[in-house]
Each structure stands twice: as structure tokens, then as C-alpha cells.
Amino acid sequence: MLTVADLETVWIDLSVYQRDIGTVRAGQTVHVVTEHGEQAQLQIGFVQPLVGEETRTARARMVAPNTDGMWHPGCFVTASVTTSVTEVRVVVPLSAVIRMEDGDEVVFVEIGGGFYSRVVEVGRRSSEGVEIKSGLDPGERYVADGGFSLKAELGKEAFDEGHGH
Q: In Å, how far are 88, 118, 120 from 105, measured between CA atoms?
């Protein structure tokens, strides 16, 4: 017996949860990652109009070029579908926004060789970043990681000022 397969292109089928069916459409961009770390940007070519009775999911299909053999039929992938794109003025990593004891959200900004907390108004959040509506201008230097250490240092300074030891 002989099995012949043309793997120059492969189908990648995504299971779309019932709650997400209204936001997933043909033509949308999808970031796909294999279990062995390969990544690609693809487009949805087809979304099944029916929901499976047992799985309560619909199928979204992409056709992926596979000239380099990156895609292996039957393997699992993880995918993120871009359902909308919104331009924002400033976005920082989640780790840059620190909540202070008084409830204010701050970003530590570099000013004159030092770092100072600045209250910011946050907007939408994603798994990667936070929109800054006000309090930080595009191009300003800020602390992306390590803000909690600076917050702790501020706390020590406040403690030292309140006690004459």
C-alpha cells in the first residue's frame, strides 16, 4: 500500500467557541503558533455557519502554504484572531502600570536621570498591554519592568520620613 499526499498547502481548522462566533469572520488575520514554536500570520478563508451539537463550536479554516514543511497535519496549534484594530496614542506593557496604595495607577517616568511616579488614566487592556489615555506622552521614557521595586523604595522613603530614628 502507498499513501500519496500533497502537503504544499495544508488546512488549519480552528474551533470557534459559540460566544465568539459573531466576531470571527473570513478575511481576519490569525496569529498561529505550533507546539514546537513555529509562528505564522494567516487569514481565515472560511467560517462554518453551523455549530456542532456536541462541541458547541464552529470551524474556522485557513489554508497555510507549507513549502518548508512547517505544518504537520494532525498537530495542535494555538491561534489568536484579530477581531478588531483600534489605534491608540500610547500603549505600555502590563508590567509598567503599578497600582499605588491610594488606588492611583502610575507609570514610573524617567526625568533628569531619576524615576518618578506619574498618575495615568488607563483604557483598554489586552493580554500584552494597557492603553494610556492620559499622563504619558508618546516617546517618553518609562520603566517597563521593575516598577514594583521603585514603589517599594518610595514606601521606604515615606516610612523613614515619618519616624525620627
A: 18, 8, 6
Q: What is the CATH number of the domain that holds 120?
A: 2.40.420.20
DSSP state of 155: H
Contact 144, 93 (CB under 8 A): yes
* Residue in the structure block whose three cell numbers are 497535519: 73
Enclosing domain of residue 69? 9-81
C-alpha cell recorded at residue 130? 494597557
Contact between 139 and 153 (Cβ < 8 Å): no
Task: Tell the residue number behind the cell numbers 483604557, with chain if given.
Answer: 123
pLDDT in tens, 29-85: 999 998 888 889 999 999 998 999 999 999 999 999 998 888 888 899 999 998 887
pTM, entire model: 0.57
